[in-house]
Amino acid sequence: MSPAEIKGTGVRLRAYRPDDAEAVAAGYDDPLSHRFLPPLPSPFTLAHAERFLSEGVAAIFAEGGAVYAIADPETDDLLGGIGFDKVVPSRGQAEIGYWVGPWARGRGVATAAVRALSAHALGAGLQRLELLTHWDNPASMRVALAAGFHREGVRRQALPNRAGGRDDLIAFARLASDPAVPTPRVLPDLPGGELTDGVVILRPLGPGDQRFLLELRGLPDVWRTSVPAQPPTAEQIRERCTRAAAHWLEGTRADLVIIESATGAPAGEIGLFYQEPPTGQGMIGYSMLPAFRGRGFATRAAQLLSLWAFAETDIARLIAGALPTNLGSQRVLEKAGFRREAYLKSRLPGPDGTRQDDVQFVLLAEDLLKGEGPRLDG
Protein backbone atom coordinates (compact mmCIF):
# COMPACT_ATOMS: atom_id res chain seq x y z
CA MET A 1 0.00 0.00 0.00
CA SER A 2 1.33 3.41 -0.93
CA PRO A 3 1.77 5.93 1.89
CA ALA A 4 -0.19 9.18 1.89
CA GLU A 5 3.01 11.19 1.82
CA ILE A 6 6.66 10.68 0.85
CA LYS A 7 9.29 13.20 1.91
CA GLY A 8 12.21 14.08 -0.32
CA THR A 9 14.98 16.65 -0.36
CA GLY A 10 13.19 19.94 -0.99
CA VAL A 11 9.96 18.25 -2.12
CA ARG A 12 6.97 16.52 -0.60
CA LEU A 13 5.01 13.89 -2.49
CA ARG A 14 1.39 14.06 -1.40
CA ALA A 15 -2.03 13.09 -2.70
CA TYR A 16 -3.58 15.24 -5.39
CA ARG A 17 -6.44 17.50 -4.26
CA PRO A 18 -9.32 19.08 -6.21
CA ASP A 19 -7.77 22.52 -5.74
CA ASP A 20 -4.69 21.36 -7.71
CA ALA A 21 -6.72 21.39 -10.94
CA GLU A 22 -5.59 24.79 -12.24
CA ALA A 23 -1.90 24.03 -11.67
CA VAL A 24 -2.30 20.58 -13.28
CA ALA A 25 -3.96 22.16 -16.33
CA ALA A 26 -1.18 24.76 -16.62
CA GLY A 27 1.55 22.13 -16.31
CA TYR A 28 0.06 19.68 -18.79
CA ASP A 29 -0.76 22.43 -21.31
CA ASP A 30 2.89 23.53 -21.42
CA PRO A 31 4.72 23.06 -24.78
CA LEU A 32 7.28 20.66 -23.27
CA SER A 33 4.49 18.52 -21.84
CA HIS A 34 2.83 18.40 -25.24
CA ARG A 35 6.14 17.43 -26.86
CA PHE A 36 7.14 14.66 -24.50
CA LEU A 37 3.72 13.42 -23.35
CA PRO A 38 1.91 12.94 -26.67
CA PRO A 39 -1.04 10.96 -25.20
CA LEU A 40 -2.19 14.16 -23.46
CA PRO A 41 -5.08 16.07 -25.06
CA SER A 42 -4.00 19.28 -26.79
CA PRO A 43 -4.96 21.79 -25.60
CA PHE A 44 -5.14 20.42 -22.06
CA THR A 45 -7.97 22.28 -20.36
CA LEU A 46 -9.17 22.73 -16.81
CA ALA A 47 -11.91 20.18 -17.54
CA HIS A 48 -9.26 17.64 -18.53
CA ALA A 49 -7.39 18.33 -15.28
CA GLU A 50 -10.52 17.90 -13.19
CA ARG A 51 -11.29 14.59 -14.90
CA PHE A 52 -7.73 13.40 -14.30
CA LEU A 53 -8.02 14.21 -10.59
CA SER A 54 -11.46 12.65 -10.18
CA GLU A 55 -10.97 9.54 -12.34
CA GLY A 56 -7.43 9.16 -13.66
CA VAL A 57 -5.66 9.08 -10.29
CA ALA A 58 -7.99 6.38 -8.94
CA ALA A 59 -7.53 4.31 -12.11
CA ILE A 60 -3.74 4.30 -11.73
CA PHE A 61 -3.97 3.10 -8.13
CA ALA A 62 -6.56 0.47 -9.13
CA GLU A 63 -4.09 -0.99 -11.64
CA GLY A 64 -1.38 -1.35 -8.99
CA GLY A 65 0.44 1.90 -9.65
CA ALA A 66 0.78 5.08 -7.63
CA VAL A 67 0.60 8.79 -8.41
CA TYR A 68 1.48 11.83 -6.33
CA ALA A 69 1.55 15.58 -6.51
CA ILE A 70 5.02 17.08 -6.12
CA ALA A 71 4.58 19.90 -3.61
CA ASP A 72 6.77 22.54 -2.03
CA PRO A 73 7.31 21.34 1.56
CA GLU A 74 7.04 24.91 2.90
CA THR A 75 4.13 26.39 0.93
CA ASP A 76 2.40 23.19 -0.29
CA ASP A 77 2.24 24.78 -3.77
CA LEU A 78 2.03 22.27 -6.60
CA LEU A 79 5.32 21.91 -8.49
CA GLY A 80 4.50 18.91 -10.66
CA GLY A 81 3.43 15.29 -10.53
CA ILE A 82 5.04 11.86 -10.37
CA GLY A 83 4.01 8.23 -10.29
CA PHE A 84 4.62 4.74 -11.53
CA ASP A 85 2.39 2.47 -13.59
CA LYS A 86 2.63 -0.41 -16.06
CA VAL A 87 3.25 -2.65 -13.08
CA VAL A 88 4.17 -6.27 -13.87
CA PRO A 89 3.87 -8.11 -10.53
CA SER A 90 5.44 -11.32 -11.84
CA ARG A 91 8.57 -9.37 -12.76
CA GLY A 92 8.50 -6.95 -9.86
CA GLN A 93 8.85 -4.01 -12.24
CA ALA A 94 7.08 -0.77 -13.11
CA GLU A 95 7.65 2.40 -15.15
CA ILE A 96 8.18 5.75 -13.45
CA GLY A 97 7.14 9.06 -14.99
CA TYR A 98 6.89 12.68 -13.92
CA TRP A 99 6.22 16.24 -15.00
CA VAL A 100 7.33 19.58 -13.55
CA GLY A 101 5.54 22.86 -14.19
CA PRO A 102 7.49 25.58 -16.01
CA TRP A 103 7.34 27.71 -12.84
CA ALA A 104 9.37 25.09 -10.92
CA ARG A 105 11.98 23.94 -13.44
CA GLY A 106 15.70 24.34 -12.93
CA ARG A 107 15.49 23.79 -9.17
CA GLY A 108 16.21 20.06 -8.95
CA VAL A 109 12.53 19.28 -8.33
CA ALA A 110 12.35 16.34 -10.75
CA THR A 111 15.56 14.74 -9.49
CA ALA A 112 14.47 15.01 -5.86
CA ALA A 113 11.02 13.59 -6.63
CA VAL A 114 12.36 10.67 -8.71
CA ARG A 115 14.86 9.81 -5.99
CA ALA A 116 12.16 9.88 -3.29
CA LEU A 117 9.60 7.77 -5.16
CA SER A 118 12.23 5.33 -6.46
CA ALA A 119 13.55 4.75 -2.94
CA HIS A 120 10.03 4.08 -1.69
CA ALA A 121 9.00 1.80 -4.58
CA LEU A 122 12.20 -0.24 -4.60
CA GLY A 123 12.13 -0.50 -0.83
CA ALA A 124 8.53 -1.69 -0.82
CA GLY A 125 8.96 -4.74 -3.03
CA LEU A 126 9.57 -3.64 -6.61
CA GLN A 127 12.85 -4.94 -8.02
CA ARG A 128 13.13 -2.80 -11.15
CA LEU A 129 11.99 0.66 -12.20
CA GLU A 130 12.18 1.88 -15.77
CA LEU A 131 12.29 5.50 -16.96
CA LEU A 132 11.79 6.20 -20.67
CA THR A 133 12.69 9.45 -22.38
CA HIS A 134 12.90 10.92 -25.87
CA TRP A 135 16.23 11.31 -27.67
CA ASP A 136 15.89 15.09 -27.61
CA ASN A 137 15.11 15.36 -23.90
CA PRO A 138 18.56 15.56 -22.27
CA ALA A 139 17.06 17.24 -19.19
CA SER A 140 15.12 14.06 -18.41
CA MET A 141 18.23 11.94 -19.05
CA ARG A 142 20.13 14.04 -16.53
CA VAL A 143 17.36 13.45 -13.99
CA ALA A 144 17.56 9.70 -14.59
CA LEU A 145 21.33 9.60 -14.13
CA ALA A 146 21.23 11.84 -11.06
CA ALA A 147 18.60 9.55 -9.53
CA GLY A 148 20.76 6.44 -9.98
CA PHE A 149 19.22 5.05 -13.18
CA HIS A 150 21.42 3.39 -15.81
CA ARG A 151 20.98 3.76 -19.56
CA GLU A 152 20.13 0.38 -21.07
CA GLY A 153 19.33 1.00 -24.72
CA VAL A 154 16.81 2.25 -27.26
CA ARG A 155 13.23 1.07 -27.64
CA ARG A 156 12.49 1.57 -31.29
CA GLN A 157 9.20 3.27 -32.20
CA ALA A 158 7.92 2.72 -28.69
CA LEU A 159 5.58 5.72 -28.52
CA PRO A 160 3.06 7.16 -31.00
CA ASN A 161 3.64 10.86 -31.67
CA ARG A 162 1.27 13.67 -32.56
CA ALA A 163 2.29 13.62 -36.22
CA GLY A 164 0.97 10.11 -36.74
CA GLY A 165 4.36 8.42 -36.56
CA ARG A 166 6.20 6.73 -33.75
CA ASP A 167 9.18 7.86 -31.67
CA ASP A 168 12.13 5.90 -30.34
CA LEU A 169 12.63 6.11 -26.59
CA ILE A 170 15.79 5.70 -24.53
CA ALA A 171 15.36 3.27 -21.64
CA PHE A 172 16.90 3.85 -18.22
CA ALA A 173 16.47 1.46 -15.31
CA ARG A 174 17.25 1.29 -11.61
CA LEU A 175 17.32 -1.97 -9.68
CA ALA A 176 16.58 -2.52 -6.01
CA SER A 177 20.20 -3.68 -5.67
CA ASP A 178 21.64 -0.50 -7.23
CA PRO A 179 23.23 1.98 -4.84
CA ALA A 180 21.18 5.13 -4.22
CA VAL A 181 23.80 7.41 -5.74
CA PRO A 182 24.07 9.24 -9.08
CA THR A 183 25.22 7.10 -11.97
CA PRO A 184 28.82 8.02 -12.89
CA ARG A 185 29.36 9.90 -16.14
CA VAL A 186 32.02 8.62 -18.55
CA LEU A 187 32.20 11.96 -20.37
CA PRO A 188 31.56 14.88 -17.99
CA ASP A 189 30.26 18.29 -19.00
CA LEU A 190 32.73 20.90 -20.16
CA PRO A 191 33.90 23.34 -17.47
CA GLY A 192 31.65 26.37 -17.82
CA GLY A 193 30.02 24.77 -20.85
CA GLU A 194 32.88 25.36 -23.30
CA LEU A 195 36.61 25.13 -23.96
CA THR A 196 38.63 28.05 -25.32
CA ASP A 197 42.18 29.25 -25.81
CA GLY A 198 41.10 32.77 -26.74
CA VAL A 199 41.28 32.11 -30.49
CA VAL A 200 38.79 29.27 -30.87
CA ILE A 201 35.88 28.13 -28.71
CA LEU A 202 34.56 24.59 -28.54
CA ARG A 203 30.95 24.19 -27.50
CA PRO A 204 28.59 21.20 -27.67
CA LEU A 205 26.74 20.59 -30.92
CA GLY A 206 23.02 21.24 -30.56
CA PRO A 207 19.67 21.44 -32.39
CA GLY A 208 20.40 24.98 -33.58
CA ASP A 209 23.42 23.83 -35.61
CA GLN A 210 21.53 21.94 -38.30
CA ARG A 211 22.00 24.44 -41.13
CA PHE A 212 25.71 24.87 -40.41
CA LEU A 213 26.35 21.13 -40.13
CA LEU A 214 24.41 20.37 -43.32
CA GLU A 215 26.63 22.87 -45.18
CA LEU A 216 29.82 21.43 -43.71
CA ARG A 217 28.92 17.77 -44.05
CA GLY A 218 27.66 18.37 -47.58
CA LEU A 219 31.11 19.35 -48.84
CA PRO A 220 32.46 16.58 -51.12
CA ASP A 221 35.90 16.56 -49.50
CA VAL A 222 34.19 16.08 -46.11
CA TRP A 223 31.60 13.42 -46.85
CA ARG A 224 33.99 11.40 -49.04
CA THR A 225 36.18 10.81 -45.96
CA SER A 226 33.25 10.13 -43.63
CA VAL A 227 31.66 6.82 -42.69
CA PRO A 228 29.54 6.13 -44.65
CA ALA A 229 31.18 7.95 -47.56
CA GLN A 230 28.05 9.57 -48.95
CA PRO A 231 26.34 12.96 -48.59
CA PRO A 232 24.13 13.09 -45.49
CA THR A 233 20.43 13.81 -45.76
CA ALA A 234 18.77 16.70 -43.93
CA GLU A 235 17.07 14.16 -41.67
CA GLN A 236 20.40 12.55 -40.76
CA ILE A 237 21.81 15.96 -39.88
CA ARG A 238 18.72 16.76 -37.79
CA GLU A 239 19.12 13.53 -35.86
CA ARG A 240 22.81 14.12 -35.29
CA CYS A 241 22.20 17.60 -33.88
CA THR A 242 19.16 16.72 -31.76
CA ARG A 243 20.73 13.52 -30.40
CA ALA A 244 24.21 14.89 -29.70
CA ALA A 245 23.45 15.62 -26.04
CA ALA A 246 22.10 12.10 -25.53
CA HIS A 247 25.27 10.53 -26.95
CA TRP A 248 27.38 12.74 -24.69
CA LEU A 249 25.38 11.71 -21.63
CA GLU A 250 25.66 8.07 -22.73
CA GLY A 251 29.43 8.50 -22.83
CA THR A 252 30.00 7.25 -26.39
CA ARG A 253 30.80 10.52 -28.15
CA ALA A 254 31.16 14.25 -27.65
CA ASP A 255 30.34 16.38 -30.70
CA LEU A 256 31.48 20.00 -30.64
CA VAL A 257 31.36 23.04 -32.88
CA ILE A 258 34.60 24.98 -33.48
CA ILE A 259 33.83 28.69 -33.14
CA GLU A 260 36.04 31.57 -34.23
CA SER A 261 36.34 33.50 -30.98
CA ALA A 262 36.70 36.94 -32.59
CA THR A 263 33.49 36.75 -34.63
CA GLY A 264 31.45 33.97 -33.06
CA ALA A 265 31.15 32.28 -36.45
CA PRO A 266 31.03 28.46 -36.64
CA ALA A 267 34.21 27.37 -38.40
CA GLY A 268 34.09 23.59 -38.17
CA GLU A 269 33.35 20.60 -36.01
CA ILE A 270 35.35 18.19 -33.90
CA GLY A 271 34.27 15.00 -32.18
CA LEU A 272 35.57 12.68 -29.51
CA PHE A 273 34.48 9.07 -29.94
CA TYR A 274 34.83 6.88 -26.86
CA GLN A 275 33.77 3.36 -27.71
CA GLU A 276 36.59 1.47 -25.95
CA PRO A 277 36.36 2.41 -22.25
CA PRO A 278 37.91 -0.93 -21.18
CA THR A 279 41.10 -0.07 -23.08
CA GLY A 280 41.05 3.65 -22.36
CA GLN A 281 41.25 4.48 -26.07
CA GLY A 282 39.30 7.25 -27.75
CA MET A 283 39.35 8.75 -31.23
CA ILE A 284 38.99 12.28 -32.55
CA GLY A 285 37.81 13.51 -35.92
CA TYR A 286 37.30 16.99 -37.32
CA SER A 287 36.39 18.98 -40.43
CA MET A 288 36.52 22.67 -41.29
CA LEU A 289 34.66 25.01 -43.61
CA PRO A 290 36.96 26.12 -46.47
CA ALA A 291 37.04 29.77 -45.34
CA PHE A 292 38.62 28.76 -42.02
CA ARG A 293 41.19 26.25 -43.23
CA GLY A 294 44.90 26.98 -43.02
CA ARG A 295 44.51 29.25 -39.98
CA GLY A 296 45.46 26.78 -37.26
CA PHE A 297 41.91 26.43 -35.92
CA ALA A 298 41.78 22.64 -36.32
CA THR A 299 45.11 22.25 -34.50
CA ARG A 300 43.94 24.42 -31.63
CA ALA A 301 40.66 22.49 -31.42
CA ALA A 302 42.48 19.15 -31.37
CA GLN A 303 44.78 20.38 -28.58
CA LEU A 304 41.88 21.70 -26.49
CA LEU A 305 39.80 18.57 -26.85
CA SER A 306 42.76 16.26 -26.21
CA LEU A 307 43.80 18.08 -23.06
CA TRP A 308 40.23 18.02 -21.72
CA ALA A 309 39.88 14.31 -22.51
CA PHE A 310 43.12 13.39 -20.73
CA ALA A 311 42.46 15.64 -17.74
CA GLU A 312 38.75 14.93 -17.18
CA THR A 313 38.15 11.36 -18.38
CA ASP A 314 39.77 7.93 -18.13
CA ILE A 315 41.05 8.15 -21.70
CA ALA A 316 44.78 7.39 -21.85
CA ARG A 317 45.24 7.09 -25.58
CA LEU A 318 43.77 9.09 -28.48
CA ILE A 319 43.94 8.05 -32.11
CA ALA A 320 43.09 9.95 -35.27
CA GLY A 321 43.32 9.15 -38.94
CA ALA A 322 43.81 10.87 -42.28
CA LEU A 323 43.87 9.77 -45.90
CA PRO A 324 47.39 9.33 -47.27
CA THR A 325 46.70 12.16 -49.71
CA ASN A 326 45.38 14.54 -47.03
CA LEU A 327 48.69 16.10 -46.05
CA GLY A 328 46.93 19.12 -44.51
CA SER A 329 45.09 16.98 -41.97
CA GLN A 330 48.28 15.08 -41.18
CA ARG A 331 50.04 18.38 -40.44
CA VAL A 332 47.18 19.39 -38.15
CA LEU A 333 47.65 16.23 -36.10
CA GLU A 334 51.42 16.55 -35.94
CA LYS A 335 51.18 20.16 -34.76
CA ALA A 336 48.65 19.06 -32.12
CA GLY A 337 51.21 16.59 -30.74
CA PHE A 338 50.06 13.37 -32.43
CA ARG A 339 52.63 10.97 -33.81
CA ARG A 340 52.26 8.80 -36.87
CA GLU A 341 51.82 5.21 -35.75
CA ALA A 342 50.51 3.04 -38.57
CA TYR A 343 49.48 2.80 -42.19
CA LEU A 344 46.24 0.84 -42.38
CA LYS A 345 45.52 -0.49 -45.85
CA SER A 346 41.92 -0.50 -47.10
CA ARG A 347 40.60 0.46 -43.66
CA LEU A 348 37.84 2.88 -44.62
CA PRO A 349 34.84 2.50 -46.92
CA GLY A 350 35.13 4.96 -49.80
CA PRO A 351 32.60 6.30 -52.30
CA ASP A 352 30.87 3.89 -54.67
CA GLY A 353 31.98 0.73 -52.90
CA THR A 354 35.69 1.52 -52.91
CA ARG A 355 38.08 1.14 -49.98
CA GLN A 356 40.56 3.74 -48.73
CA ASP A 357 43.85 3.51 -46.84
CA ASP A 358 44.19 5.34 -43.53
CA VAL A 359 47.24 6.87 -41.90
CA GLN A 360 46.78 6.55 -38.13
CA PHE A 361 48.21 8.94 -35.57
CA VAL A 362 48.30 8.58 -31.78
CA LEU A 363 48.61 10.87 -28.79
CA LEU A 364 49.24 9.52 -25.29
CA ALA A 365 48.18 11.26 -22.13
CA GLU A 366 51.72 11.56 -20.82
CA ASP A 367 52.92 13.07 -24.11
CA LEU A 368 50.46 15.97 -23.88
CA LEU A 369 50.21 16.53 -20.15
CA LYS A 370 53.96 16.75 -19.68
CA GLY A 371 54.21 19.50 -22.29
CA GLU A 372 52.95 23.05 -22.52
CA GLY A 373 49.34 22.53 -23.49
CA PRO A 374 46.68 25.21 -24.01
CA ARG A 375 44.92 26.69 -21.02
CA LEU A 376 41.24 25.78 -20.68
CA ASP A 377 39.15 28.81 -19.80
CA GLY A 378 35.57 27.69 -19.13
Q: Please, could you describe this protein's structure?
A:
- This protein has 378 residues and is α+β, with helices and mostly antiparallel strands.
- The protein has eleven helices and 16 strands.
- The protein is elongated, with a radius of gyration of 24 Å.
Taken as a percent bin, the fraction of beta residues is 25-35%
CATH topology group of the largest domain: Aminopeptidase
Tell me, briefly, the overall form.
elongated
Strands across the major sheet, in which order?
Answer: 1-2-3-4-5-6-8-7
User: What's the architecture of the largest domain, going by CATH?
Assistant: 3-Layer(aba) Sandwich
Which quaternary structure do these chains form?
single chain
By CATH reckoning, the class of the largest domain would read Alpha Beta
The chain-level structural class is: alpha+beta
The pLDDT mean sits at 94
| N-end to C-end Cα span | 49 Å
Question: Superfamily at the CATH H level of the largest domain?
Answer: Gcn5-related N-acetyltransferase (GNAT)
Biggest sheet architecture:
8 strands, mixed
Structurally, the number of domains stands at 2
DSSP summary: helix tally: 11
Rg calculated over all Cα atoms:
24 Å
Percent of residues in helices comes to 25-40%
- Report the count of strand segments: 16
